[in-house]
Design brief:
56% helix; 7 strands; 5-stranded mixed β-sheet; 2 domains; globular; two-stranded antiparallel sheet; 319 residues
């Protein structure tokens, strides 16, 4: 490992070690206990990490040694092996309040593979180039493994930012160019300003991480002072041919992104654990109507969905 790569891993490890609300770490530990010693770590990311709010939906990635460590049916496990991650919904009570979370479950090896710049799946590196926290780790060695995996995602994102971004610009310009592409390629409801708001929340962090990741990838770059004391102007040394090749490669990923999202949604219809409770919470959150989930609905969410939605529509909840 080069010193540049090690520097990036140290940077990422420092980020992952950020303070996290005790209720969130307790929830992560409770989830990790479901997989026992087979759980490597639990990553916490998304808007709840950025804002500190716990009244919405928390986002966790559960990283395993093997898929067999997690309680899934053979069918669910087969789906996770072919199109990771599987997604679940979970609730817990802490400090007198209910916490809710969306869990993405996959092995650490799958995470590493999907976080590569050459992966056709852009979702892992696009998410984990953004700040994350390690809410639970099995031990110090496992924490180091997760930090190295997340650093790989940062390297992949920075590689694409250099090849798809401007020939020269501020660090924020490279991230804006990249996240605009990744957000546009996925099935999302956020507005066009979403990438910029993410970068604006931590501009120094994205500047520092871009430089470290470029160095780890062996991408040389020039630097000039910005106008009127603004952010420095960076110019990665990327040939015209390399840019053209990267743009062709990105077109392939862009065409595949939405079909991959749709395939995951279709898979989730059969593998999403806790889906009935999740839908009930969403209905209560947006309408104020509390829907009691029956044992039958938990066992057969697809069969129960039609009659339940019809009943709510008749009551005027869904109008």
């Amino acid at each position: 490992m080069t010193e540049a790569a090690a520097s990036l891993i140290r940077f990422v490890a420092g980020e992952l070690d950020r303070p996290i609300a005790p209720a969130v770490t307790a929830f992560a530990a409770e989830l990790a206990a479901r997989g026992g010693r087979g759980v490597v770590g639990v990553l916490f990311y998304g808007s709840a990490l950025r804002t500190g709010a716990t009244d919405g939906l928390l986002d966790f990635y559960i990283l395993l040694d093997e898929l067999e460590a997690w309680d899934q049916t053979p069918f669910q496990r087969a789906g996770n092996r072919r199109l990771p991650p599987n997604v679940e919904y979970a609730e817990t009570t802490a400090a007198g309040m209910t916490l809710r979370a969306k869990l993405a479950v996959m092995t650490l090896a799958q995470f590493v593979d999907h976080a590569r710049a050459k992966s056709l799946d852009t979702t892992i590196w696009a998410r984990f180039a953004q700040p994350a926290g390690l809410a639970w780790r099995r031990d110090l060695f496992a924490g180091a493994q997760v930090a190295e995996a997340v650093a790989g995602a940062c390297r992949a994102a920075a590689w694409w930012a250099a090849h798809l971004g401007p020939e020269r610009g501020r660090a924020a310009d490279f991230w804006q160019a990249l996240f605009s592409r990744t957000y546009a390629s996925e099935l999302r409801v956020e507005g066009v300003n979403r990438p910029g708001s993410i970068i604006d929340a931590a501009p120094e962090r994205y500047d520092a991480m871009l430089r470290l990741a470029w160095a780890a990838e062996g991408i040389a770059f020039g630097e000039q002072e910005g106008d009127s004391g603004g952010a420095p102007i960076l110019a990665p040394h990327i040939s015209d041919q390399a840019r053209a090749d990267a743009k062709r490669a990105w077109r392939t990923r862009s065409r595949l992104a939405k079909p991959l999202n749709l395939a995951r949604l279709a898979k989730a219809a059969f593998t999403f654990s806790g889906g009935a409770d999740y839908v009930a919470w969403k209905i209560e959150r947006h309408s104020g109507h509390k829907e009691i989930v029956t044992p039958f609905q938990r066992r057969h969410p697809l069969l129960a969905a039609g009659p339940a939605l019809w009943r709510l529509w008749r009551k005027g909840v869904l109008r």
